[in-house]
TrEMBL record:
GO CC terms, sorted: cytosol
Keyword Ligase: no
Domain CheW-like: 13-157
Lineage: Bacteria, Pseudomonadati, Pseudomonadota, Gammaproteobacteria, Alteromonadales
Main location, first listed in the record: cytoplasm
Keywords per UniProt: Chemotaxis, Cytoplasm
Originating species: Moritella marina ATCC 15381
Keyword Cytoplasm (UniProt): yes
Cell compartments where the protein resides: Cytoplasm
Protein name, as recorded: Chemotaxis protein CheW
Domain of life according to the entry: Bacteria
């Protein structure tokens, strides 16, 4: 294979970080991944859906933490030493958004050719955008590729952002 052929293949593929939930493999585009962290407790926010575990302060940024098992209606499990939070950064409406995704374990990084990605089946209503970007077979196993930007529940995100604006204001200095 010459260099031009390899360049064409590289331009027609995307790398995905894959992870495990309920013994199934899922993936998000590697360019959306900011970092991978071990599970740590977070600050709970009242009146959030159960799948929003709370928020963490990540170097000055308030990051909502979403348990994908709960968001997808999978069986809850206790967090363990291999439970991780994948911090993703996506652009929505021209703004950068950061969110942590709690998953069972990180699996691998795969370079996937665009032509190998199958469109997800149309199971829901037309008004309900799926978070599934596509499906791909890797080593005889089906991997569900997710769209990081569609995982964001924008209404919940706005509620969390409004809290962080109030909490990041400078503390008052006492006169004395």
């Amino acid at each position: 294979m010459d260099n031009n052929t390899q360049t064409e293949i590289d331009e027609q593929s995307t790398q995905f970080l894959t992870f495990i939930m309920a013994e199934e493999e899922y993936g998000v585009e590697i360019l959306d991944v900011q970092e991978i962290r071990g599970w740590e407790s977070c600050t709970e926010i009242p009146n959030m859906p159960a799948y929003v575990k709370g928020v963490i302060n990540l170097r000055g940024t308030i990051v909502p933490i979403v348990d994908l098992r709960q968001k997808f209606g999978l069986e809850n499990i206790e967090y363990s030493a291999i439970t991780v939070v994948i911090v993703v950064k996506v652009f929505v409406d021209g703004k950068s958004k950061v969110m942590g995704l709690v998953v069972d374990a990180v699996s691998d990084v795969h370079s996937i050719a665009h032509c190998d990605i199958n469109l997800p089946p149309q199971l829901g209503t037309d008004n309900d955008p799926s978070v599934i970007r596509g499906l791909v077979s890797i080593k005889d196993k089906m991997v569900v590729l997710l769209s990081s930007s569609l995982l964001l529940d924008l209404e919940q995100f706005k509620n969390i952002e409004s809290l962080s604006v109030h909490n990041t204001q400078s503390p008052m200095v006492a006169n004395g």
